[in-house]
């Protein structure tokens, strides 16, 4: 197999999970702009997600968010998904939208609130059992807004205790992915603010606990690919929540703000042996002002392009330059791959996969956008609150 | 008059404007936690604001936000305020919550949307005429989320054109305060992102246009007191929107995150001749998880304490050390004032003003919180959306 | 002329000025690593700079730094440059390396130090007269490390006074380029910390005073292309000091850290009419660990590549998408140009210019690196201190 | 014992270690400004450090930096220290100033350079044996400036291997303190960039390996007290390098930039049981423009003041407010302690300790500054290079 064939072969195995909530409305604290055709329920979200997979060929699973995607019969939902050509993916918990959670969830000073939050997490594992999902993705909005508001250390104790209980509940083949976030909605101290904290907890929990890297959840200037390389080296990288940002957790389309960073991240994934089924590649974005389905198609393509470039790095030339201490040449090897226009390669891959070489154009031609705008009238559009 | 008497005398003249919207509910994109007793309309907001003035003695005016505080008869509203012991202050425009504003307001690519936005701004001046407000405070959420989304420069042209039309409408004794903001809700390019942009526009508009410094609207690490000193030197500082932040535009209580910074800002205000009626000292905060009225009382007190410390700086000792190039001594003079506990001084000032020396305790004792929690049942609580 | 021919034609006119000091040793406060073959004097620096132009064809001028490049006879230096195929460019002043400047130069509290600094600046204009340079580039390290250390506002007064005196001295065809910098070496308040401050001073000085944008001199997250667009709109963009950074003022090779940002900047330059002789495109980098000449060649090529992509943007398609409010399509137009591999185009341009299509390879083959390493033995290598 | 007596008693036990290098010259990459009276050798540095202890009573030990403080007979140096009333403290290694270290030290691609670096670290343990120091403080400047320059992950392997060898060499009662740093002098990827990386290595090494928190080594906005609380909870906080910063690693006097942050850090230390001999409280600052000895005295006093305020927090009132979820009250308890002017308390403590209540004034009166300026003439002043 030629090198290019090997790259194409690898790209063919790529799987990017799209999040059900990205198909619904989202916004900022200032305004949520509703869009025509937005799904009203999980069934419609899955139909949209299926379109993304139909045109890209590499988005076979859909993450659910509980309770936003709560249904009576998850087996039926899973079947619905499969009928549309996709599968259900990670289960995402939500412990930030009930009034009880004003001061936190599993870190809350009140044991009753913690109990409620843990109950929700356990329920999420029940749902995993029902859907066959293997990943429980945990993001906690927990934190404090003011110095002194609560005891930082005790909150860690509560966190550890809550996580341990949920960890015990995990069945075979199930794992817990713990996400960290620099800030927001907590504005003074977030309870899982960085990869170190997530890592320390996962280490104590055991093998089934791993860290999720959301690319928008870091302090300004943080070298994210270093974290990726380190977590892979530690065997603790569970997956990604991809998106991009210029400022804070902007949740823009992945690759939109700093495509070179995305490439560097994917290079460390490839180099560190993370390009495979053990690491979950998920999107977690907010399409506040742009059309949602094509934005997600574009995002999937951006991940593909970055991956293709990462796979094209001439590893032996790079290794030689690195060992020789040739700073400029080693950097040039990396840049050569990055500067390559991989769009023809990906177009060719799509043709091999019996897909349209231009997924965006194909989606536009499909009439889906018009169809859902016309049909999905009335009812309550999905959003973060429902 | 002794020095301390002069400080007290100056503090007695201080006026901090509180914003009507801070009495309503607010939150993050993740959740708005409702609080008991929150006002349902501008009348109730003014009643709450009057409590802040009643207990602090230095919060005599209340800023309105249009359309959130729209009423049929502004004369009646002004009278209502006065009956409660306060006055109406600045009029704040809102060009970010209509669906039309998804891609901007006065910078929008579509002239019809720009026309609508300008119409709203002109209406705000009408309201100023009716209320006797002198300040039109303009904050634009305008910007773009993605490179290429719109033409950065043309948006400046549209901004200049729109501002000019509104500026022309200002009557005698009225002015326009232009606010800048680093980012949010726009995540790529904000149309008025920094003081330089606001300054450049105000300069061209004329004397009635001045810059507002919101203390939470800067890039990480920005030296805000430098901007304050510079704008005062240029005669272009119109006022402040006070709040504090650890990360982005967190909108925490002013003085809560970095009280030393607040002191440095107030020192430059005092030193630059800005402590007087020409500079508006306004709060602009979100009390997402804390009780609103006592949080605003605390914020007013924090501004007072920072001001007191700024007034206590031994200016002649400072000047001598600065001229001598004595870095440590000059810094020590500043720190000496900052490290002083001014709470006894302010307690004494309040007693001079026939106020309780402890405004928070007095408010708690007053029973107002219980009263409004009991009485304000039913209806729609005020929030950013209404 | 086809579109591609027009792009090539424009690229052919491009001129990137390289800085004499980038050929000498540089480092961090921790260590300056010396490199073999580094020039010992301005004559050797110019010989190196000539190599960069020889292989790239677009680096025809060299900026000098006084006193580092002080010589007895500038006419002779200019002639030496021309004999090597390059010309002398901007004159850069230095008011930060004498012991007198510990607390500042033209903002220093002591009038005698200010006088000395102004004297140096006037001397730089004398040198411009002698070399025929048109640009006086001013960067002031002035600032304070501690709150209270000096009076922020008075320092602005001193700055204005000093600049005015130097401005008066400028002859016909000469201009003053004022640089701003977020921080370093001052760690509390820098006297020209942002574009707004530089702009405000330049505005008062007059038409010959313009702002220089150093791409590494901003707060984290700052949208630099916005500043570029704004300064061009105001007619106040004098030029660039190109370099790149991941953190602070890292002074890495331009385009190395965020090539997409460089592209966006160049797009605003092209779109705003700044691609021409009125805006100076200069490098200002530190090659602490990499070989200097090839690093500068690479940097020049990176600017070329970003410019080529900026020129390739389909302006009419972009305009149509922007006017239609099609966020995704407008962004796609920009990304299409960015994702294009322009290296073949530039290779072809070089062949048209009778240059080797691969400047780095050609330089390596030339033997210059070996030659200077062998010949430049003994003496004092050039660095920031000499 | 009354509460105040308990606070004074605790403060009396406080020990702040001052660094030998802070008595020498330092600066930025732009300039090192020499100061009169600066020590020429370790013996003179210790004499200066003894003055800091003489006037503050809480700076009994002095950290050494190898090779800057290399002497033939460390026993003699230790005796010299004791004769002056101080003791030798932590040994700090230096693997960043030899030409060999251009691309790293124990992470260098070349095994020979790694061997040299490890050799130096082992030599430092030898010196610890000779001086009786218990702490080996390791800060590595290692990292890369450009993407691709070296293999991020392999560098971690090399780091782990090198640390393990040094760890094995530690004797009884000796420990290894591993410092992390966000960036500088490496500008792309630093090999120990954050607490998580340092923690992960220390965990594998064993009980004698602990993390050092340098307060200036974090990304913008990082909540340092959270890290302190977390490391204490994990039993992995070895000590502090205190200093302060407005921007990057500015190395200003501790408490000068954000005294409230220093207080919050000291509160977590006290609350987490870290106020005792197991955590080393060290300064690591650069007095680039201010007089060194009084700056260090001021810094020690700033740590004392922050500690005093932290000790004054009404823990039971805080606990009650936290458990009640009273955000404002809990914050008020913390702020009440912070706003207290503790200078009278510390003056009284000093009198109890037979010290002058005003250490700065006492130092100024002592004539030491004049004496060393007169006597220390000739020779090579100490600085980072020697």
UniProtKB/TrEMBL annotation, chains A, B, C, D:
Keyword terms of this UniProt record: Isomerase, Manganese, Metal-binding
All copies of domain Xylose isomerase-like TIM barrel, residue ranges: 48-245
Domain of life: Bacteria
GO MF term (any one): L-rhamnose isomerase activity
GO biological process: L-lyxose metabolic process; rhamnose catabolic process
InterPro entries reported in the protein's UniProt record: L-rhamnose_isomerase, Rhamnose_iso-rel, Xyl_isomerase-like_sf, Xyl_isomerase-like_TIM-brl
Listed name of the protein: Sugar isomerase
Native source organism of the sequence: Streptomyces lincolnensis
